[in-house]
Amino acid sequence: MGNTLAYKILETHLIDGKLNPGEEISIRIDQTLTQDSTGTMVYLQLEAMDAGMAKTELSVAYIDHNTLQTGFENADDHAFIESVAKRHGILFSKPGGGICHQLHLENFGAPGKTLLGSDSHTPTGGGLGMIAIGAGGLDVAVAMAKGFYSLTVPKVIGVHLTGALRPWVSAKDVILHVLKELSVKGGVGRIVEYSGEGVAALSVTDRATIANMGAELGATASVFPSDENTKAFLESQGRGEQYMPMAADADAAYDETLRVNLSDLEPLAAMPHSPDNVKSVSEIGPIKVDQVAIGSCTNSSYADLMKTAAILRGRRVHEEVSLVISPGSAKILSKLANNGALSSLIDAGARIIENACGPCIGMGQSPKSGAVSLRTFNRNFRGRSGTLDADVYLVSPETAAISAVVGTLTDGMAEGSERGFFIPEIKPERFERNDHFIVFSKETNSDNTPVTMGPNIKPFPRNTALADTVEGRVVLRAGDNITTDDIMPSDSRLLPYRSNIPYLSNFCFEKIDSGFAARAKDAGKGIIVGGENYGQGSSREHAALAPLWLGIKFVIAKSFARIHRSNLINSGILPLLFENHEDYDRLRAGANLVMKDARTQIRRPIVTLTDTDTGREYRLLANFSDLERRMLLAGGKINMMKETPQTK
Ligand code: MIC
Ligand code: SF4
Question: Do residues 397 and 172 touch, judged by C-beta distance below 8 A?
Fold first, then answer.
């Protein structure tokens, strides 16, 4: 049996371990990326490691999440990141340059490379035939300091594409279809690999859209072959020499396979409040729309915005709709300005906002109360837009643009030509290399550059070694699919405090249980109980660090999302699994549980916690690798590295 493309790339980067699903390996990391809202923690941790110069081929620090600079905190964070970047030989991408994943695709991504990023949508790079993985900030800091990353070998799901997309159906509809089939936890422990003759009909930015939302499947990464379209994209960016053809063997064996005929797809939408709550636009019907937002790392490419401009040309945004557009990069915006497409957007009544994450992470443009907002983004979790009772639908740029004009959710395939709309084919354009937003570090010795640190930047919390007896009270019982947005909300009010865990922790779980922080502080030592897929979504390690600050000792759930589980372990918080799912219903809020002989128990696959009031025992799975056990015993990853500096 032949090899999958994913395993071929992993194999060429293997440092330690065997490529068997479920086993732990270490791989060489060629590139890293960080963004500002996770970046301050990453760079505080990098500093705590006395790392010296970055050991990767290329590391980039992007500023794109919080670019509002409503107070000194935000600008101070940027200055801090810039100073650490210079010190360690890391490239710094200034605010305004664009969204990290779009910028990385344009400027640095290359077939066959590995990329680790402190953002869950780092897998966007899979559109260029690379293994690009999202991780917690500490893992990215270690990758910069040591050049490797340890992970459990994922299985590979093969998605076999045939046919070609019809007009008004786009890459967004492909991934929404896959989400409908596999669900938000269908990709956990898996890499999603695309193949088949249908791949040739997708451009690199189409593929990037699909790989981007592989994060919503919970997948470790998504990967496309590198072919003539890859070559055309790299040439269009002035990087043709980085092209290298890559594909799976013809007889590659996949652990699971999904077949998708692109010709059968129609415009789809993810309904509130989950990316896998997918229906066809025609089935949902012409609901009234209040806001339309086009942009984000999923759908802000040149082709996406040219299609949008073609739909809006000579039209007018419906008077009851607010349309906001955030281009993916300064290069794209400049091209739209030069070829006149920008005028089509502005003349139609679109609001053009900065080349940044913007409304996708609740940085402004929160819809009005009870609004319907159509967004080309990747997440529609309740409240993420900044408005708790808004209904956010995730759609393609084509569906978003036509609906903005019509004023109701509109299926362009059914009504586009009848209403006189036309979408031209968008050919790859040649882009000038424009590095004006990038600061290249000239440093060769990290001791030469001082770190700039504003008053809002506080040290990150550190755990202590696991005690022999660990005790805690259940301070929260949460349901299935709890997101890291639920655990540590993010919006224009809270993003300025990403470098201040003591302050931020007051808002932990605020949206679903406003009493949580006070209760956890009161208990001193707490336990969180969750359902399936606990911690899905954002990679923010703040969702582990704030609970750590509040005294959380264990999180007990039916299953965990990959990045959050790692973040808990990195922080020395024990993620344990119910052996018997019925125990989830038995474990009441307020119960006080004790784990005796904790240091011995966690070396076993099953541990026992006892309710000190009722005497009831709970058997919990402690499915940790050797490395994870060592981290938990030491009280987190940094402590372990200090104890054994050569650790992989
Ligand atoms: C997101 O889309 O949720 C974010 C904001 O980009 C996060 C990172 C963060 O919380 O800072 C992510 O996807 O990892
Ligand atoms: Fe930014 Fe949104 Fe992409 Fe996250 S999902 S990186 S907030 S654009």
Answer: yes
